[in-house]
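We emphasize that the prediction below concerns an isolated chain of 137 residues; any contacts that depend on oligomerization or on bound cofactors are therefore not represented. The input was used exactly as deposited, without trimming of termini.
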Amino acid sequence: MKNLFDLSFTRFVSPSIARIVYILIMVALGLGYILVVIASFASRNVMLGILVMLIIGPLVVLIYLALARIGLESLVAGIRTAENTAELLRIQGGTPPGSAHVGSAGGPTPPNGWNQTYGQPPASPSNYPPNYQPPAQ
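Result of the prediction step, given as a token string:
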């Protein structure tokens, strides 16, 4: 919970509260389902009440629950991708986003041995097949 009050935004809070949000969505959908079933029976139309209770209500609840789950999963997956990318940059010797020094050019630095001009790994001729001709520039 202390990450919720982190004003520097150095840590992601979404993965830790996604479970709580999902539980709240399930509770809200359950209460909404019960209220709609009660309202449909209160309309004095028993067939409508049974239809809402057995077919329409559960279908709507399942669709909204699936959409909420997909949305939360995509949010958490995006955040985990960002965390993993930052970790890979750190392992390779680059600068993770948000930690560039003041006064520097900014942005990540390529790993040692990479071509600074083109941002690509060095191409050694020994990696090419014997009859390979590189494309003309």
